[in-house]
Design a protein that fits this description.
- This protein is of the alpha/beta class.
- About 25% of the residues lie in helices and about 25% in strands.
- The protein has helices at about 10-20, 40-55, 75-85, 100-115, 125-130, 150-160, 210-220, 235-245, 265-275, 290-295, 300-310, 320-335, 545-550; strands at about 25-30, 60-65, 95, 115-120, 170, 185-190, 205, 225-230, 250-255, 260, 320, 335-340, 340, 345-350, 360-365, 375-380, 380-385, 405-410, 415-420, 425-435, 450-455, 455, 460-470, 495-500, 515, 520-525, 535-540.
- The strands form seven sheets. A seven-stranded mixed beta sheet has the order 12-25-26-27-23-24-13, covered by helices on one side. It has a seven-stranded mixed beta sheet with strand order 21-18-19-20-14-17-22, with no helix packed on it. The protein has a four-stranded antiparallel beta sheet with strand order 4-5-6-7.
- Strand 18 (about 405-410) and strand 19 form a beta hairpin.
- The radius of gyration is 31 Å and the shape is elongated.
- The model has no long low-confidence stretch (mean pLDDT about 95).
């Protein structure tokens, strides 16, 4: 009997709430701001919020926190929905903070009516000075003494567009001596004459995140509002607003966000990489965005497994990206079609092969009994990898060398008889003989060889472009590395092989299909492919090459 998996701390809270009758069902939400594409850190939050609701029979809302019109675009909204669905989740309701602009406005007016908020004409610098320091209490200015009537009129006029950006804000009236700096009369509304992607020009005042967030949760009856640890100081304001407005008491819980080696999770920095052309776009396969990982060939199953493995914790730590790559390898090993592709071709001619050619059956995936076989064309002239031949070979070298024998994958054993060179001394081809009775699956030759090589028939080879992607950054902890983060970009993060040769089966596959190129790694067909010229992205190597490098050094 397998041991039952222990609960994480949020699951313990949910189970206790349901057991005690605090809630009869739970409602969570995933609230991204549509100002960029989602990254692997968001995947952790998605899996947590949607996973909790699924486990406990509840529901999850997808709510876009669209309160900052100058940075938000419909393109980002669409990409977020696409990524959530690709990860395998469906939301109960698609909602927007902008759905609640009128209600949030009324909430702010209610606080003003209670004497708990006021309109402030101070500049942002003045407000910052008035807040004091963590050890020195702040000082409330004279604008806080305005009457309720005056504040309500000013707030109405702000909405009507009578004032310029930055000329006035609305601040909650809480405690200028609070040890939590966020409670020192925080700004809850600001003026921003900017076109909104959904409401157009209907509004020129917008709620701050800290005001919109908790109230939106309350409007939707969110039972467990799950945030990352940096929002712990915000929880007091979250609770204060709900308490003073006397609305549904949503509760905020915090977990450690995902920090991963050789990776950045800042949308601002990811946008910088895109805008400054360090990458080709948000879906560049080197990016930590979900769309980039999708294009690279990562699977939703592997990302979900990764999120499950790293768990939900209360303390920040740095997760090794090798764990994510391990999860990808594990899944691709089960589903990827095996194919043969030669990157750096060396021609061999089988001098005693008199047939016009034949089709040799080869397994599509030895890990999947239902994957079947495909027929690989074999002929007199083949390409092998140049690195699989040595003219002067050391002992225990099991690949091809003069006088040495190897097996060709799913085909025959061959022996190298002659090395052909051009006038400059460069090897141009190898002349070999084959052993007809050594055919794979029906070998009666009695010959034992230790090396097996992949190959492609010259006559049937399909020209392909192969993009070898590596980690985008050279340092482990990019977020805390010295200097500009862009100084640590790995200049060798992409190698393009423009003239690789593939077996013809790859021409019939569609974009997104995933492969193991035998002895080379896992690859995915890219959207840049054209008729007759497929383009493949390396998803991940067969083994963790970086771990080997670390041990070597």
């Amino acid at each position: 009997m397998s041991e039952e998996k222990s609960l994480n701390f949020i699951e313990e809270i949910v189970e206790e709430d349901l057991k005690n009758g605090k809630y009869t069902s739970i409602t969570t939400r995933f609230p991204p701001e549509p100002n960029g594409y989602l990254h692997i850190g968001h995947a952790k939050s998605i899996c947590l919020n949607f996973g909790l609701a699924k486990k406990y029979g509840g529901k999850t809302n997808l709510r876009f926190d669209d309160t900052n019109p100058s940075t938000e675009e419909t393109e980002y909204v669409d990409s977020i929905k696409d990524d959530v669905r690709w990860l395998g989740f469906e939301w109960a309701n698609e909602l927007y903070a902008s759905d609640y602009f009128e209600q949030l406005y009324q909430f702010a007016a209610k606080l003003i009516g209670k004497g708990l908020a006021y309109v402030d004409d101070s500049t942002s610098d003045e407000i910052a000075q008035q807040k004091g320091t963590p050890t020195i209490p702040g000082t409330r200015n004279h604008f806080a003494d305005r009457t309720v009537e005056e504040n309500l009129q000013l707030f109405t006029d702000m909405r009507a567009g009578k004032y310029a950006d930055g000329s006035k804000v609305v601040r909650a009236k809480i405690d200028m001596a609070s040890p939590n700096m966020l409670l020192r009369d925080p700004i809850i509304y600001r003026i921003k004459h900017a076109h909104h992607h959904r409401t157009g020009d209907n509004w020129c005042i917008y709620p701050m995140y800290d005001f919109a967030h908790g109230q939106s949760d309350s409007i939707e009856n969110i039972t467990h509002s799950i945030c990352t640890l940096e929002f712990i100081p915000h929880r007091d304001l979250y609770n204060w607003c709900i308490e003073k407005l006397e609305i549904f008491p949503s509760h905020q819980y915090e977990f450690a966000r995902l920090n991963m080696t050789y990776t950045i999770m800042s949308k601002r920095k990811l946008l910088q990489l895109v805008n400054e052309k360090h990458v080709t776009g948000w879906d560049d396969p080197r990016m930590s965005t979900i769309s980039g990982m999708r294009r690279r060939g990562y699977t939703a199953e592997a990302i979900r497994e990764f999120c499950e493995r790293i768990g939900v914790a209360k303390r920040e730590n740095l997760i090794d990206v090798s764990l994510l790559e391990f999860c990808v390898r594990e899944h691709l090993n089960k589903i990827a079609l095996r194919r043969m592709v030669v990157f750096d071709p060396l021609k061999i001619v089988i001098t005693n092969y008199d047939s016009e050619g034949e089709l040799l059956p080869s397994e599509n995936n030895p890990e999947d009994a239902n994957s079947g076989h495909r027929d690989v064309p074999f002929s007199k002239e083949l390409f092998i990898e140049r690195e699989d031949f040595m003219e002067v070979a050391p002992k225990k070298y099991f690949r091809l060398a003069p006088g040495q024998m190897v097996r060709l994958k799913s085909a025959y054993i061959i022996k190298c008889d002659e090395v052909v060179k051009d006038a400059a001394g460069n090897i141009t081809e190898l002349k070999c003989t084959y052993f007809p009775e050594s055919k794979s699956g029906a070998d009666t030759s009695g010959i034992n060889v230790k090396g097996t090589l992949h190959w492609v028939s010259v006559q049937h080879a399909v020209a392909a472009e192969v993009r070898l992607y590596d980690r985008l950054f050279k340092v482990e902890d990019v977020a805390n590395a010295e200097g500009d983060f862009k100084d640590h970009i790995n200049e060798n993060s992409l190698e393009v092989i423009g003239h690789a040769y593939a077996e013809p089966a790859l021409l019939h596959d569609k974009a997104g299909d995933r492969y193991q190129f035998i002895r080379k790694g896992y690859f995915s067909l890219d959207k840049d492919s054209s008729a007759g010229k497929p383009v493949f992205n390396r998803t991940v190597t067969l083994k963790d090459a970086w771990a080997k490098e670390v041990k070597k050094n």
